[in-house]
Input
Amino acid sequence: MLETRAIVVQIDGQHALVRSSHGSGCEQCNGKGCGASKLSGLFCSKPRQFQVDNPIKAGINDEVVISVAEGAIFHGVGVIYLLPLLLLVIGATLGNQWALQAELRDLYASIGALSGLAAGFLFAKLFLVRRARIHFQPYITRLWSEERVSAGK
Output
């Protein structure tokens, strides 16, 4: 399970708007690690805010731990990037095969590739809209103060 700390900025029913309290990367980035947080700092220097489920009913200004289900990132990457890329290649191959004249193969392959790419993005969007709330939605698991207290015991 991927986790990060955040501060609750706003409450809206069952959801909370949170601000990430530190940059991306794992705990290794605080010490000696791969340096992914330094690279992301070049592009994302200001704090990020995003909406999460709030099953523990955390309040405004609470420091919380945000979690994403195990494997959600890899499934999301597969759907968003790999599905359109796969359909692009399939579309280009089919377009190339369906060309009746050799001079038009590149044109048909280009049209097939663009059609496959568009279909891949459409399928990815439909898939994520239907399943995003269930599998990919980040949620608040606990208060950060609870984690510090249990670690000190």
User: Anything to note?
Assistant: The chain is about 50% helix and 20% strand. The CA atoms of residues 19 and 65 lie 11 Å apart.
